[in-house]
Automatic annotation (TrEMBL):
<feature type="region of interest" description="Disordered">
    <location>
        <begin position="646"/>
        <end position="683"/>
    </location>
</feature>
<dbReference type="Pfam" id="PF04499">
    <property type="entry name" value="SAPS"/>
</dbReference>
<dbReference type="GO" id="GO:0009966">
    <property type="term" value="P:regulation of signal transduction"/>
</dbReference>
<comment type="similarity">
    <text>Belongs to the SAPS family.</text>
</comment>
<protein>
    <recommendedName>
        <fullName>Serine/threonine-protein phosphatase 6 regulatory subunit 3</fullName>
    </recommendedName>
</protein>
<dbReference type="GO" id="GO:0019903">
    <property type="term" value="F:protein phosphatase binding"/>
</dbReference>
<dbReference type="GO" id="GO:0005829">
    <property type="term" value="C:cytosol"/>
</dbReference>
<dbReference type="InterPro" id="IPR007587">
    <property type="entry name" value="SAPS"/>
</dbReference>
<dbReference type="GO" id="GO:0019888">
    <property type="term" value="F:protein phosphatase regulator activity"/>
</dbReference>
<keyword id="KW-0131">Cell cycle</keyword>
<feature type="region of interest" description="Disordered">
    <location>
        <begin position="754"/>
        <end position="800"/>
    </location>
</feature>
<feature type="compositionally biased region" description="Polar residues">
    <location>
        <begin position="428"/>
        <end position="437"/>
    </location>
</feature>
<feature type="compositionally biased region" description="Polar residues">
    <location>
        <begin position="772"/>
        <end position="782"/>
    </location>
</feature>
<feature type="region of interest" description="Disordered">
    <location>
        <begin position="428"/>
        <end position="450"/>
    </location>
</feature>
<dbReference type="GO" id="GO:0005634">
    <property type="term" value="C:nucleus"/>
</dbReference>
<feature type="compositionally biased region" description="Polar residues">
    <location>
        <begin position="661"/>
        <end position="678"/>
    </location>
</feature>
Amino acid sequence: MFWRFNNMCTTNIDNLLNDEDITLQRLMDEDDIIQECKSSNRKLINFLVKPEVLHELISLVTKEPSTQAADVVRFKYNNIAAELLSCDISVINDAIVTDEVLLTELCQFIGNEPPLNPLMASFFSKTMAVLVGRKADKMLEYLKKKEGFLSQLLKHLRTSAIMDLVLKLVTCVENKNSRLEIAHWLCSEHFVENLLGLLSGKTEADLHGNAAQLLCDLLRLLRDMHAQNVANEISMEHTHQGESVECDPILGALESKAMVDLLLSNMLGSELCESSIVHGITVLLTLLEVRRPPQLLSSEPEVYDRFPPDPVVTPCIRNTVEAIIPRLKDFHQILSQPPHKPDMDVITGACNKPFGFVRLQVTRLIAVLIATGSSEVQKELASLDTFPLLLDMMVEFCHNNFLHAQVERSIQYVLGLEPIDLLQPSTPLAVTDGSSENETRNESEQPTSSNHRLLSYLMNDVCIVRRIIEAWELNDQHQNQQGGLRRAYMGHLIRMANYVVDFGKQGKNATKIQQLIENLPDELRNRWADFVENKVVPANRNNEIIPVTSHMVAPRVSSDEEESDLIRLPKDTAAQEVFAEYQMEVMNKNIVTQFGFADTQFNDNDDQLRPPPETLVNIALPEDGDELTQQSEELFEQVCNERMQTRQKAVDGDDAEDNETWLSTRRSSENASTVRQESISDEEETIADVANDSMDIDNADPWASTGDLAIPVAADAGNPWESAPTCTAGDEDDSWANFSKADFDNPCIATPMEISDSPSTVASDVPADVSLITSEDPNASSPEDRPDPSLTAEQANGPV
């Protein structure tokens, strides 16, 4: 209907463009100007690409409007101009990039002194992003000529819109070759060095956050793009043996050891700045980040939480760890002597010496360094006595769960990982794929360290077993005091104790941990065994979450179901549960659908009186037309016969012709009547109700004595459609019917009634000319053919 009658909203822009004196501001007052531009309105685009109009649009994007205008409409035209330029219209983009004057006017915006207006910066960033993404070659040619453009961008990096523009300049270029050319140009302009220089303690703190965020986003996006390129090259079989995909130069510079050294020198310079250290460690954590595939589900939910994953060695991780190891003493110094922070009030009371975000970031860095499995890092941490300091801070700052989590992770990695010589060259391995015996892939294996220095230091020098017991007893003393509460580190302390027990039983360092525990003094070893049995085991039992299984669910017993009818099933073992799941998998849909009843069996509608159709049978139709016609006729007759047989079993109350035939036949039965059972089924009542709706209802009382009206009182035994002999009871008006010999259990076989000589007061009300129907006729009708007893005599016999 919409397109047939052309019910489209008409625009006034075409009419305005016919005017020769039309201005850009007048067009911007129209609400649908942006939509018309996106829909490539030819008249509008031809107007917008005029040089004077483009200059006006660029001016609106780069120049802040006057403050005299109301705030509601102050940036209205600036916003519309930015939307028009970023509609990604090829004609407009070509007109801008081919005019160097327009580009110069556009880039003059970043020449303003900071801080920039965030709204105007977003207009500029949106326009530049479209031009760089679509016309990268021409924009790169212009930017190479313009001096100081990159330094001006980094100067305004505190504005989030400029940070987004730099990110799009590196990653959002469509053409792969153009993107590589831009990356090489940025490296020639020392883009990475200048960006890392913003994390120095001498720069403003406002720049640290955006600079670190930009570095982290660049690392993640460029890694993803490189991995995608490698996957595409392998799938397209463009990469030959010995040939590798070219890495992005910016990514290579960020992951180099020289850049990590530059970052550490800017962070840990002569002037320590808390913001610089915090955001610098964020970049280091991103450099050490490893993206692992998702773990498979296991029957034991804690198997992947308890056992740490194996370390992954990459050139970036090796370069980063090699650069950090000489600087570990500086980070240890920050833990022992953090930057001064003012006192603060917390929920638990006044905190005279807050832990601070700086030390929390250092603990995160230490945990990640231990997770790399580097034996060099472990030796350096053991020589610096870092773990006693971490455990002391855990007890001192008993409510800082962020700190507790990092200490727990560090101990988990020490106990569960086998150290490797990370800085040593890796050993190449030739692994044969299972798909082909001739295809091999080259992998490298890092040599393992024979001496686990940090593990021995943790068990002997630090005596982690004693520290756990003392921290537990300290919590018990505090909790037993009046008003004492449980310390917040108890949950992490229980897991640390479980690590010592579990990794001593199984794991890569199980043998070493058992030997170190055996070498403990007898008093401490017995104390630890008693602590595990009386403290750790009950705590684990209380914290255990038991999943509900099938054998734990009590069976449902109805009120009328006896106890002996229930089938007692044994508890499922693990093998039985697996076999039961397998059985459920192999069951097909047809078996499942055979259980229960169909929904149509519970419907009492008239449409459901007919039985459901049988399954259709595929019929091969011949190509001959005469034979097809003959088969069609035979099929039609077969369907008609089946329908007629079906209609003999189920009466359709909606068919008026059947009702008239039944009534006319009933009138010719010489006023013969029958009596049905008092209790009829629900289906017969439904048929009777439908029949009543299609007849004229007589409201007269059928039991009233009105002359010679015959009332049916005898049992049904004969065929109502034929004339049957009747017997009258006129000679014995005072007699009473005797039903002692009637067989009510089998209503289909009627028994002749006997007349008793017993008088009754009710017998006087019965007319003398009551007709009885005998049951001796062999062609007795079925209950379905009998008339409904709810019908009156006039309805049953027809009008007199």
